[in-house]
Amino acid sequence: MEQNMQVQDEAVDFQELLVRVEQDQDLMQELFAMFREEYPRQRLALQQAVDAMAMPQIQAAGHTLKGMCANLAMKPSAQAAARVEMAGKEQNATELPGALIALDEAIVVVMRILDRSQAGEPA
Question: Which of 7, 25, 87, 106 could be 76's S-S partner, Cβ–Cβ 3.0 to 4.6 Å?
């Protein structure tokens, strides 16, 4: 249980994000809502690029997702998206499945945290 809490604490660095938004909790929640709305669209674009094995589009989609996650202090998700981006850049189809799994797993944790945050529960 303690390890699970540590993973969740690391998934979104709330301290860092609050500094970025100047302690504005409403703004932070608004940014999370925007992320929840935009992420599925970006993930779909990534999946379409993967299905077509379009490496430049995989790189671009990975870059977009990396930026979205990094801006919201979602470090493990940003790192996983960076792996996707690099696989596209290097045209490394072997690395891609593992990178996608890492991204999806990291985002599952983030979404659980955002659900709790939205419900007013501690992350």
Answer: 106
**How many other C-beta atoms lie within 10 A of the C-beta of residue 87?**
23
pTM for the full predicted model: 0.88
CA torsion angle for 65, 20, 27, 104 (degrees, to 10)? 30
Burial of 31 (0-12, 13-18, 19+ CB in 10 A): middle
The CATH code of domain 2-118 reads 1.20.120.160
Chain centre distance of CA 45: 14
How far apart CA 8 and CA 4 sit, in angstroms, is 6
**Where do the domains of the chain lie?**
2-118
